[in-house]
Specification:
about 200 residues, about 10% strand, 4-stranded parallel sheet
């Protein structure tokens, strides 16, 4: 996937980019910063984990059951991406209404093969290997690491690991939020990202 991004960037052609990687996209962002360090000006790693980090190789049975559903289910999605509080679940419902409101130019729905490929990539990335954390020291770009305080997919503690091992990183943890923190706090998160990209 990182190679595909590089082919796309080279075809445009772009000499330098700011990059935001969410979840599995954060894995790709880390790889790009490592294999093409001069391409990335500033990096945002949202709801993601470093390679070899703990507790992502084999999700808990509850998380796997919610993430690996064959038929999309709004309630399961909300339980997976948002915290259990009433306020967080309400924000999840608002998010689902927002993403389903667009009538034209909608993305094509993904299929089970795509889902399974993503699950496989997450599993491989998460094979426990603490030595992989040393790679993060080579990411010298300013980096914003962000997550909810209760991410059960990428595990919030892995955001702390990222911020600790990336030399020029700052960390933001959003309260009463899970993996979908950026959908729960879209305006606040956008303000934080814009401030970061503008040198804040």
């Amino acid at each position: 996937m990182a190679r595909d991004v590089l082919r796309f960037v080279d075809a445009l052609p772009l000499r330098q980019v700011d990059l935001l990687g969410f979840s599995l996209g954060g894995y790709i962002g880390q790889e790009l910063a490592l294999v093409r360090p001069r391409l990335i000006r500033r990096l945002v790693l949202a709801g993601t984990a470093p390679q070899g980090a703990p507790k992502i190789h084999r999700w808990t049975d509850d998380v796997y059951a919610l993430a690996a559903q064959d038929v999309p289910d709004p309630d399961r999605f909300i339980r997976l991406f948002f915290s259990g509080s009433q306020e967080s679940r309400a924000k999840g419902v608002e998010y689902l209404k927002r993403i389903s409101s667009r009538a034209a130019d909608r993305d094509e729905p993904t299929d089970m093969a795509t889902r399974d490929a993503q699950l496989g990539a997450i599993t491989r990335w998460g094979i426990p290997d603490p030595s992989k954390l040393t790679r993060l020291g080579a990411i010298t770009q300013p980096t914003l690491v962000a997550n909810g305080d209760n991410d059960t997919m990428m595990i919030t503690e892995n955001s702390y690991l990222l911020a600790h091992h990336i030399p020029n990183a700052q960390l933001r943890i959003y309260p009463d939020a899970g993996h979908g923190f950026l959908n729960q706090y879209p305006e606040i998160f956008a303000d934080h990202v814009n401030a970061f990209l503008n040198g804040g």
